[in-house]
Amino acid sequence: MDTFETVEVLLDVPLHGTFTYLAPHALPAGTRVQVDFRGRKQCGVLVDGVANPALDPAKIKPLAAIFDELPPLPAALLRLIDFVSAYYHYPKGAALFTALPTALRVAQAARLADRRAWALSAAGLADQPPARQRARLALWQALQDGPQTIHDLRAVSAQAPKVLGQWLEEGKAERAEPPSPELEVADGPPLNAEQQAALAAISDSFGRFQPWLLQGVTGSGKTEVYLHLIACALAAGRQVLVLVPEISLTPQLLQRFADRFPVTPIAALHSSLADGERLQGWVDAWQGRAGIVIGTRLSVFVPLPRLGLIVVDEEHDGSLKQQDGLRYHARDLAVWRAHDAAVPIVLGSATPSLETVANVEAGRYRRLLLTTRAHAAASLPQVRLVDTRLLRLNEGLSEPVLAALAKRLQKREMSLVFINRRGYSPVIACPQCGWTSGCKRCSSKLVLHLLQRVLRCHHCGWEEGVPRVCPDCGNVDIQPLGEGTQRLESAIQRLFPEARVLRIDRDSTRNKDAWDEVYRKVHAGEVDILIGTQMLAKGHDFGALSLVVVLGADGGLYSADFRAGERLFSLLMQVAGRAGRAEHRGEVLVQTQWPEHPLYLSLVAQDFDGFATRELAARREAHFPPAIFQALLRADAHEAHEAEAFLGQFKAEAAPWLGEVALFGPAPATMARLAGRERMQLVFECADRRALHRCLNQALPLLERLGRKAGRSLRWSLDVDPTEM
Amino acid sequence: MQNRLVLTATVEREDVLRYTPAGVPVLEMWLRHQSRQTEAGAERDVICEIQSVMVGEACRAWAGRVAGQELTVSGFLCQRSLRNPRLVLHIESAEFVKG
């Protein structure tokens, strides 16, 4: 037994550090194992480390199992996790297990279908089956031409799996990696001068770290540039990682990649995959079999041994930031990975995040511009503001908007009415006593969903029936207040009875096949007016939209969040970009009560750079990111005073060593109450990122101590570079 | 607490039947009353208008039939809303005046 040696294991637990176990022989870092941890079977991963010398060797438990069906996890992944854990101040084990696909998080051997081809060994080649064994002979002959897949061999004989299994045992057959097919690239549309310049500049940086911002107006053909770059990387034998927001990872996009690279294995990783499929894609990428990985934020962790290029599309999109657990930003991690692997990274957007713009200004990133639409006939849409202060609204729609819709209907062109609020109306109210439908568990309103006759909280998911009478005063005539997609849909249908109206929001597309139906209808010309939320704004090309109407955008101007303006502007630019993508010149009408607001004036001018310059100056003046760096300490509990006491205590004890870091709060979060819990927060701010992280390193043990002391009701979390306050 | 109004009036305008979010039908109408009444021992002309509303299943039977008709209605009075103190007659029962 003295040949046992200790190993350090990372576990999926919210504790910092590693755990020591005994291994029967030396094992490489990255090996997946099963251990007994506090009486439960847990999956662990071996890492390099030194055992705590204070540990009593007699009490160290042996590893319960070693999983060797897959090679050890690669060093690059463990390096990334080291960085993630240090940067986001998150326990390393928990961070690693966030990065792994579900099938590798459990204490079980991963089950992967062996899709390798079959070939004859030298012994098998020499041993021709006799003619009377017809099936065997047919298989033997089929294998003379080189390795075959089981699928093809089954077509030769239904007995193929049985016979091959037997031959494998006898040493007559062997498994062979299928020869990787020659790269094939289908023809795409020709690139214009700007696209060519971008392609030349970026491909020139292959083989070294260089972040690029590819800033192209909507419809300028950014994806076409990516496809050409990917072709270059694949031709050089490298793998490509493409990160996209959840909402734009559509079958349409995947098809476009598959059409362009017909024989290249593509691993598409998104949340609706079954665990087995996700594992398969992950392992294909890790083993170098997949040439392209396209996925949502979680794919940033996928190991790629031959990584040659990273693309982050719509790099400004909020969905790239994880909002719970390990609160990482996939774009920022992608930049770190590009640096680690010494490869270029392309951040693409029509409206880049101000963080990225600031990085360009500081010379860390280089910017490439695409200023014209790729489709030669398409020009940028004309944006007009409709001042609703002076106009009577009919169901929330102004006269100019109704006239524009009627005109498109007459010309048989498709229009889009955008309102970023699903449901029938955002609240119901009693006009007699002033009661409104508040959520009992959150500081938000219950939204009326008229078709299902329910009130629903869009924050915590609470659902209840619509009350027959006002719960406060008994009045029957309670009324919906404000517009949502459902109300707009019925209003427009009433105002234009002959129009074919299609509503697209999270409720109408919940069904898996709903998108196929939407595309079929839109492309068959069976829709006159589309009504939808931001689902329509991002990533979907509906071809001949000639009019886009934006309703209810002003809400974004009133928000307390300093990023609200940036988000509103980029959303409106995206929505406006839906207009006039094909041969129609698009028109965009925005209903607003603030027609002289600078944000809207930049929108009319389609001037992102002007907006960004002004907004960045304002952020610098107000000491907001990206001019400074932030971290957010959130605490929630059943009672507000518990959360406040925890944060207050932390602030008091941290005061002596804060240095240049400023603490603001404790203050209630924007959503002060969510799902029955009171939320408070404390903001860390510092102009020096490293000083901020030194402070957080020091803060962590204190937080853990105070958290343990505070009792069960309290939960806390740390969010580095928060995007939602 | 007493709150009762009985009125014979002509329906000046009838709105389209609408429904509350819970699916209860609501019929709004404007009533115009004209009569002779005695005041301080002398007869005089009385003219008034009042907004009124019928709520509940019963109003389905009246919808689309009352515009221009003379009705005798009874119900209670309530202000229009929190911010608008104008009186609205909430009709509980109504019948056509046989003319």
From TrEMBL, chain A:
It is an enzyme of class 5 (isomerase). It comes from the Bacteria. Zn(2+) 2 binds at C439, C442, C457, C460. This is Replication restart protein PriA. It comes from Craterilacuibacter sinensis. NCBIfam families: priA, PRK05580.1-4. The gene is priA. Initiates the restart of stalled replication forks, which reloads the replicative helicase on sites other than the origin of replication. Recognizes and binds to abandoned replication forks and remodels them to uncover a helicase loading site. Promotes assembly of the primosome at these replication forks. Component of the replication restart primosome. Binds 2 zinc ions per subunit. Residues 203-370 form the Helicase ATP-binding domain. Belongs to the helicase family. PriA subfamily. GO terms for biological process: DNA recombination; DNA replication initiation; DNA replication, synthesis of primer; double-strand break repair. Keywords: ATP-binding, DNA replication, DNA-binding, Helicase, Hydrolase, Isomerase, Metal-binding, Nucleotide-binding, Primosome, Zinc. Signal peptide: none annotated. One of its GO terms (cellular component) is primosome complex. GO terms for molecular function: 3'-5' DNA helicase activity; ATP binding; DNA binding; hydrolase activity; zinc ion binding.
From TrEMBL, chain B:
It comes from the Bacteria. Gene3D superfamilies: Nucleic acid-binding proteins (2.40.50.140). GO terms for cellular component: primosome complex. One of its GO terms (molecular function) is single-stranded DNA binding. Keywords: DNA replication, DNA-binding, Primosome. One of its GO terms (biological process) is DNA replication, synthesis of primer. It holds the Pfam family SSB_1. InterPro entries: NA-bd_OB-fold, Primosome_PriB/ssb, Prisomal_replication_PriB. Belongs to the PriB family. Involved in the restart of stalled replication forks, which reloads the replicative helicase on sites other than the origin of replication; the PriA-PriB pathway is the major replication restart pathway. During primosome assembly it facilitates complex formation between PriA and DnaT on DNA; stabilizes PriA on DNA. Stimulates the DNA unwinding activity of PriA helicase. Homodimer. Interacts with PriA and DnaT. Component of the replication restart primosome. Primosome assembly occurs via a 'hand-off' mechanism. PriA binds to replication forks, subsequently PriB then DnaT bind; DnaT then displaces ssDNA to generate the helicase loading substrate. This is Replication restart protein PriB.
